[in-house]
Design a protein that fits this description.
The protein is mainly alpha-helical. Helices cover about 65% and strands about 0% of the residues. The chain has five helices and no strands.
Length: about 110
């Protein structure tokens, strides 16, 4: 019985971790209203940077965690902290890609 409870707890906790949404063409189309000419390729690059670099210092944050205005303030601050700690460098282009991803996908999550 104890083994079952432990296994159930592990499954439950792993299913609760934040999963990043894969962008779709409709996400790119919706996001292009905010970011002119946004493509699915750009969204995927933003997701990759977010997934690979941002999570080196902390776990996944959901795109809906903050508003667009908050993300615009948070991303440069986090990039600077990452640079100062010498853990990772996030270029201005990568910061913009992350911003476009989280803002666009944050809107996706609100619609679903």
């Amino acid at each position: 019985m104890k083994k079952f409870i432990v296994i159930a707890a592990v499954v439950l906790l792993s299913s609760c971790s934040a999963k990043l949404l894969l962008p779709t063409q409709s996400d790119a189309e919706r996001g292009s209203a905010m970011f002119k000419g946004l493509t699915i390729d750009e969204l995927n690059k933003g997701k990759d940077v977010f997934d690979k670099k941002c999570t080196q210092c902390h776990g996944h944050k959901r795109p809906t965690s903050w508003t667009e205005i908050q993300w615009r303030r948070i991303i440069p601050v986090m990039a600077e902290k990452a640079y100062k700690s010498k853990k990772v460098q996030i270029s201005p282009t990568e910061q913009e890609q992350v911003l476009r991803y989280v803002v666009t996908m944050g809107q996706h999550s609100k619609k679903n």
